[in-house]
Amino acid sequence: MIANLPRTITFICLTLSVSCPLYAQSVPPVFTSPEVRSDNTVIFRFFSKSAREVKLSTQIEKSPMAMTKDSLGVWSVVLGPAKPDIYPYHFIVDGTSVADPRNSATFPNEGFQSSLVEITGSSPLLHTLQDVPHGTVAYRYYRSPELGTRPVVVYTPPGYEQDTKAKFPVLYLLHGTTDTEETWTKVGRANIILDNLIAQGKAKPMIIVMPYGRAFPIVSKSSGSLRNWENLQEFKKDFLNDLIPFVEQNYRVKADKDNRAIAGFSGGGGETLYLGLNHPDLASWICGFAPGMLKEEFERNNAVAFADPAQTNKRLKLFWIGVGKDDFLFGVIQDYIELLKQKEIKHETFISDGGHTWMNCKLYLTTIAQKLFKP
Amino acid sequence: MIANLPRTITFICLTLSVSCPLYAQSVPPVFTSPEVRSDNTVIFRFFSKSAREVKLSTQIEKSPMAMTKDSLGVWSVVLGPAKPDIYPYHFIVDGTSVADPRNSATFPNEGFQSSLVEITGSSPLLHTLQDVPHGTVAYRYYRSPELGTRPVVVYTPPGYEQDTKAKFPVLYLLHGTTDTEETWTKVGRANIILDNLIAQGKAKPMIIVMPYGRAFPIVSKSSGSLRNWENLQEFKKDFLNDLIPFVEQNYRVKADKDNRAIAGFSGGGGETLYLGLNHPDLASWICGFAPGMLKEEFERNNAVAFADPAQTNKRLKLFWIGVGKDDFLFGVIQDYIELLKQKEIKHETFISDGGHTWMNCKLYLTTIAQKLFKP
């Protein structure tokens, strides 16, 4: 009944300032991790008396960094100074990946456990929580006849609740493969980025709808395989028949294609292009963030747009593709962009530094949020 | 830049059905964890080729269970049949605690990383997501002059957005030590429990306000110590001066003490009693769930209530204390209940099985939610 209670009790005893006779030997020392310092260096710490080797893996350094143990069993390493951003990281303890037990900022994902460190620097970034009016991030459920009760996270801009007449445009924002409906807010800071851009007058107030972007988890019990095309078909039905009606019935939205945008990262970028390019009435704004794609699927997944480029160009107000130079999808996305040129389909490209990361996701969202729903 | 990318890329490659030449050796086999079966047994799985020993720690079995490795490096163990509930669990990999990498249901906490498994059984429980009208769980920020921008999670009942005239009573619900503002929804399922109780006509529709229940994290950089009393003083200011005004300005609430309840678990239970018993105008409904307390602090922390028991009895509609027989706080809470009897302060007690767990938190919330705001 209380098998893993020592960890909890240890903390409660510490809080109550009572002694923990049963658990005295397991009481870890008091320490913070990560500790971000004003010079943009960070101390990471991990407690283990028994580990033989602990390393820190981040998306800042190319290789895991060795950590050293003090006499109390606290392993630590100093990183940086690092470029201000939010980075995923984890410890590697004798070969096993472990999220930071002292950090409640975690990376919502179905395939791994990671923690997040925010390195802010001397001036706030666009994803830094600032003293500006904040929108609301609502966790809702909607109903799909085929898939059951489905989670969705909905950002409404500052003032949405007060001005009960105003209607807003909607950005549908899809996460990457193995991410969840929480990843765009918790890792991508979509809500904070929009709060700040709206406060600065750089983005139009908009609603952002972040559904769970798969019909079923990537590894589902019933399948035993990944069924990517089948997932796309099932998710399309859910998106068009269940999600959009839920949003338009429950939020004050401008319900036409010129006031609908769709964007997504990685696997969700592939979904974005597939949904957006094949459904002319869906959205006039389509943005792929390092969109997942395969060359042999170009024709199939773009069939409607490719069949009538002139009509596609006429109806789309923005067709935007961003990718990092170090992204492992850079090559296939270049092939895709080349094909768009051949087909004479208008598009904007944004080639950034960096790889297939959520640091780039924040950059891409920041970029497109300033373009959406503007003449 | 891409130090921990292999885990991500592996999954993306799997999804895109492309080969991962660089990472071929690290591609884990396809498997699900946890796999809950219809007979309430559960298979837990963890992938590691290098670990020497992997165990499963749950709050079901008293001791960690040994797991065995197959030829692909997947460790597994079958647990149960278990009593239907939601249980925290983690793996112990060569002595290191690890949340389940294949499970995005995690336990929001500042002191450890755990995963959650829901064992539902043949009929839904009160915390099971069902096809009933759902309320909204909103992540908001409010401003404290002393503490800065503060997170709070607010549940509004089904229909709140539609009926723009109705006003609701409010339950302020505090988490335990090292928990966060998300723990009551993600582990305690407060929103789902209320959705179900409201659908069954067993609870009055209410708003539930779940703030981050500390002035500062339990282990804060600036302190190096735990400062429990100082935390209580700072949190009290924030609660009374910032949180309640934010709620009453931003939600349609009935803003009087008979329509305010306060409840909390463990450290948050101690805060609940301290706030509720010392502020006669705050709330007529006070509920402690295994409240954290020290015998030497009884007089100080209950000063106002103890000074005038008759007035306390007159003003309170419910003073409720729940605790499990196996809770490590059972003794001190019994001493406290004895003192309440001596002081002739009216109260209800609820002695359950089990220990200092979130299984009991759900039970206690389910119990008191059916009493609140009723004649």
Automatic annotation (TrEMBL), chains A, B:
It holds the Pfam family Esterase. One of its GO terms (molecular function) is acyltransferase activity, transferring groups other than amino-acyl groups. InterPro entries: AB_hydrolase_fold, Esterase-like, Ig-like_fold, Ig_E-set, Mycobacterial_A85_antigen. SUPFAM superfamilies: alpha/beta-Hydrolases, E set domains. Residues 1-24 form the signal peptide. Transmembrane segments: none annotated. Keywords: Signal. PROSITE patterns: PROKAR_LIPOPROTEIN (PS51257). This is Esterase. It comes from Pseudochryseolinea flava.
